[in-house]
Amino acid sequence: MTSPQERHAQIAADLREQLSAGTIAVGDPVSITALAQRWGVARRTVANALRTLEADGLLRRYPGLGYYALAAGHPSPPRTRQSEAAATVLERPAPTRHQQVVAQAVTEILEPLLKDMSRRLDEMSGKTDNLLAGLAATVARVEHVIRQSETGVRN
Question: What fold, for 4-76?
Fold first, then answer.
């Protein structure tokens, strides 16, 4: 029987081989539960193996999302300009290809809407300025009429 340390080293070696062979692609999730079931070991043993690969720069752990495969030496999975913008908005990187596609679609949908809203706000701002100027002119005319009427009443 092998120790948990030996098992985690075996799992890490197997995953390292799969990553270098491309069996696990950049951006793919690496499931602790699935690996624990496949290898017949505790989740902690798999987690230790994944931490080893993370330290080697082959995986990255995203809190709340799990581990994802990286290209060797890259800090995060490759992203498009659109998914970068969406990731900034979400304050979370888009680690999977599916999330990248979703982020790009969301960006493509929201970008024209935001531009239209910005344009409408600019138009409203211009209208508001015109309304305020018109209101100020009206107030000035009313004040002028009041002054004239007061002057006419006194005379």
Answer: Arc Repressor Mutant, subunit A (1.10.10)
pLDDT at residue 42, rounded to an integer: 92
Mean pLDDT in order along the chain per 10 residues (155 residues)? 81 91 85 92 93 90 83 50 50 62 73 78 75 77 78 58
Residues shown for the chain: 155
Token couple for 5:
């340390």
Q: Domain spans of the chain?
A: 4-76
β-sheet with 66-69: strand ranges across: 29-30, 66-69, 59-62
Provide Rg for the chain, Cα atoms. Answer: 32
Distances (CA, A) of 11 to 2, 52, 142: 12, 10, 86
Q: What is the structure's pLDDT at 154?
A: 52
Name the one residue in this structure whose structure tokens are 């752990």. Answer: 61
Cβ-contact 67, 61 below 8 angstroms = yes
